[in-house]
Amino acid sequence: MTELPSPAETSAANGGLPVPTVVSQAEVEALVTADVALHVTREALVAQAAGQVSQPDPWHLEIPDRQGEVHIKGAHIHGAAHYAAKLATGFYGNKDQGLPTGSGLSIIADAATGFPVVIALDNGYLTDIRTGAAGAAAADALAREDVGTAAVIGTGVQGVRQMAALLQVRKPSRLLVYGLDRGRAEEFAARMRLLHDWTVEVAGSAEEAVRQADVVVTATPSREALVHGAWLKPGAHVTAVGADMEGKRELALSVLERADVVAADDVAQCLRVGELQYAAAAGIAASLPLVALGDVIAGRTAGRTSAEQITVADLTGIGAEDAAVGSALADALAARRT
Ligand SMILES: NC(=O)c1ccc[n+]([C@@H]2O[C@H](COP(=O)([O-])OP(=O)(O)OC[C@H]3O[C@@H](n4cnc5c(N)ncnc54)[C@H](O)[C@@H]3O)[C@@H](O)[C@H]2O)c1
């Protein structure tokens, strides 16, 4: 195993001050697994809903001529040993050059002194895994126990992460995949068949997939509604992860209007940049059955109360989740040295 310097090791070259440990994506992947991410992301959602997090608004930069967007998020969960600041990018023209859409890095710092202790050069892995974990936490809190068919709209990085994470909490026997590009959807379906013993089919349309699904996950940068309320089966759960800034949208208002529970990872943030921005603009947000996802996870608020209800999770990605997985990484690095 690679010998690592201690997080916050001091250096004479740095005037005796702490020098952060720089870790690669491979090291981060080994130390912050999907199970670790699910555990700490749940805790972060619960803490956020309880008001136990200091979390500034996300910073968003758009570079339209490169189809680029840059997000900076961060937080301190009260009482935690670390705080974190995280950069995540999505440059949708990258695929034309054979590059991944997303990248990023995290800075994890000591909450007692402020000094950075870890710089994770993880190419966005921590963002990807915590977003998957939030999806799993939402499905676990809100979906029926007996999920037969799942549907995923979007066949990119989050499509993969969300399906892997869903399998942590539910075991569907069938998956329907819809993507803009049929060839990519077929490749995605082949990858999904390796994850679990389920029947995986490529659907001809989002509607065809959604109409049959007990759990629907949308994971695209769409700016138009992809899912409509009339398509939802009784008992369906919908998790939307794609809308994380103004202008992005995956769900029609009719989805929110049909829901018996609409859970937000951060209610205020979702009203600004999530699916709920459209409910706010239409003046119907106050009439929705809106709850904080962390309150449902903690049992402070009721989630689904019958098998026939429709539930929705609006996930914009919160700084508390970034702080939680960052802190887990710093702890794992420290534990590895002892
Ligand atoms: N909520 C969060 O915490 C969070 C975290 C990470 C990413 N995201 C967001 O999730 C979205 C997807 O991210 P990703 O990393 O998977 O990107 P990606 O580029 O890897 O995949 C995007 C997929 O969406 C498909 N797509 C694009 N427009 C579509 C449309 N109109 N209809 C159907 N499919 C469409 C693309 O073909 C591709 O398969 C982005 O909007 C990203 O910003 C949110």
From TrEMBL:
Q: Name one GO cellular component term.
A: cytoplasm
Q: Which parts pass through the membrane?
A: none
Q: Which Gene3D superfamilies does this UniProt record tie to the protein? A: NAD(P)-binding Rossmann-like Domain, ornithine cyclodeaminase, domain 1
Query: For this UniProt entry, which residues form the secretion signal?
Result: none
Write down the InterPro entries for this protein, in alphabetical order: NAD(P)-bd_dom_sf, ODC_Mu_crystall, ODC_N
Protein name, as recorded:
Ornithine cyclodeaminase
Q: Which organism is it from?
A: Yinghuangia soli
Lineage here is: Bacteria, Bacillati, Actinomycetota, Actinomycetes, Kitasatosporales
